[in-house]
Write a structure and sequence with these properties.
- The protein has 206 residues and is an alpha+beta fold.
- The strands form 2 sheets. Strands 1-2-3-4-5-6 form a 6-stranded antiparallel sheet. Strands 7-8-9-10 form a 4-stranded antiparallel sheet, with no helix packed on it.
- The longest helix has 18 residues.
- It is globular and about 55 Å long.
């Protein structure tokens, strides 16, 4: 193969690889209504345009609220959906594929998140991990077995694509008043770090 032709082929191959590289912002724009029901496709494009130009402009969503992109990296994007709700979309390499991490958080009255996983075609995984319960935040299982544990657990979740670690900040205490707090609440840690193994969340031991 002639040198000039070889260079042309390599250039085309590199261009093809770049075209296949998808960022978190790309996934945000292409997300189905199920994943981002408040934001129309064109609205998402406008939001990214405002952010990329350093503008604080918000966009009207489908529930008559205001939304905007608050952070954007190749593997993670943050969106303020409404005054009281936010969304994180992150990319997680998994085996030979990429998973889309979808974390939606409602901030009032008590911050609470739900984590969902999709494949790169935005198909929800058929087996979603069970969300964390009180036991996940407890280190003394024997003491917890004798205590009155909270029936409902609230947490604020986040994901770091660089380390692949999920952080879960325990916000359960905010659900109770000083007069109705279950005794087991004092046994729960403030936060835990987890990894997703394809089936469940597994705690990261220090």
């Amino acid at each position: 193969m002639k040198p000039m032709r070889r260079i042309a082929v390599i250039t085309c191959m590199m261009a093809a690889l770049v075209s296949w590289a998808r960022t978190a912002a790309d996934f945000f724009v292409s997300a189905p209504e199920e994943a981002v029901p408040m934001l129309a496709h064109n609205t998402r494009l406008d939001m990214l345009d405002y952010f990329n130009h350093g503008l604080p402009t918000t966009s009207e969503n489908l529930v008559n609220g205001r939304s905007r992109v608050t952070a954007n990296a190749p593997d993670r994007i943050e969106i303020q959906l409404t005054r009281d709700a936010s969304l994180v979309i992150g990319l997680m390499p998994f085996k030979s594929d990429t998973l889309v991490v979808h974390i939606e958080t409602v901030h009032t009255p008590v911050p609470d998140s739900r984590v969902k996983f999709y494949d790169k075609n935005w198909h929800a995984l058929s087996r979603q991990p069970e969300m964390l319960g009180a036991k996940a935040f407890v280190t003394d299982a024997k003491a917890a077995a004798k205590a009155e544990m909270p029936e409902m657990v609230f947490f604020k979740a986040d994901f770091d694509p660089v380390t692949g670690i999920f952080s879960f900040d325990n916000t359960t205490a905010g659900y109770y008043t000083e007069f109705d707090r279950p005794s087991g609440l004092a046994l729960m840690r403030g936060s835990v770090a987890m990894r997703y193994d394809g089936k469940k969340f597994v705690e990261v031991k220090e």
